[in-house]
# Entry
Amino acid sequence: MLEIKGIEKKYYFKPVLTGVEMTIQPQRIYGLLGRNGVGKSTLLKVITNRARPTAGTITLDGVSVFENEQAQNRLYLMSDARLFNQDSKLKVLLKWVDQLYGGFDYALAEKLARQFKLDLKKAKLRRLSTGYQTIANVIIALCVPCDYIFLDEPVLGLDANHREMFYQALLATYAQRPRTFVIATHLIEEVAGLLNDVFVMENGQVALAESVEALQQRGRVVSGPAALVQDYLQGIKPLREVRLGGMLTAYTLDTPLERPLPAGVSLDGMNLQQLFIEFTREAGEGDEV
Ligand SMILES: Nc1ncnc2c1ncn2[C@@H]1O[C@H](COP(=O)(O)OP(=O)(O)OP(=O)(O)O)[C@@H](O)[C@H]1O
# Structure
């Protein structure tokens, strides 16, 4: 288990992470969600020792990961493919990753390369298109032996077919060899079916950490005549209310569902993306077009 406590990070005196608390369990698939610039990449870099926190602790199975090579070898961050040596042939790159982490799954890499039509023997990273650089990068991430794999925007530049292939490949490798994946992405609907849990970041912290199932049970859209909706939601502060004429639509995570629904009022679920949008919407944002 990875335990992240009180993590703060400043860049040139500007606070980016302001007290991140999170527990990452073994063998689960997490989504790391948050608005642009909220600090997702920074957090992943801090966890995997690519950036130094200003304060806080991170322990893996009770042992600090800072300056601990053994612990760091169990964590892998897939981020920008440009961080690899661009002149390296892919085969050489795989060997290099194998030397660093040991136990690289060459058979799986070759299988995935065939599926994605990527020639590992010939290709040099520099000569690949943006999408294929990402494909090379995700193949490496799926084949490293690490227990905790952090994927920062793993499908950037991939076409829809390749994105689907990647999600399938991730699930297949997870079924074969369960380990933890933490996926930072904005394509919430696409990954929703993959995730066990989500972390939502706001203001440099984790504002919501919950299983997808529990969240989807809580998220509700209540709409109907304003007076009836307000009466139904008594004592609840919705995430957002939208009024149109005499009608009111309220988005909430706290509806007391035991209450009988008044005639004329509808109660619907919210998918993960809607939930995220309502949860992270800033006051007034999107109200005017
Ligand atoms: N190396 C750096 N030097 C200075 N500021 C940085 C650095 N890296 C990130 N930042 C700043 O930290 C903040 C968080 O950036 P980060 O990339 O972690 O956000 P993010 O949630 O991953 O964003 P996005 O979803 O847009 O990719 C931003 O304001 C960014 O400008």
Observations:
- The chain has a mean pLDDT of 92.
- The two ends are 45 Å apart (CA to CA).
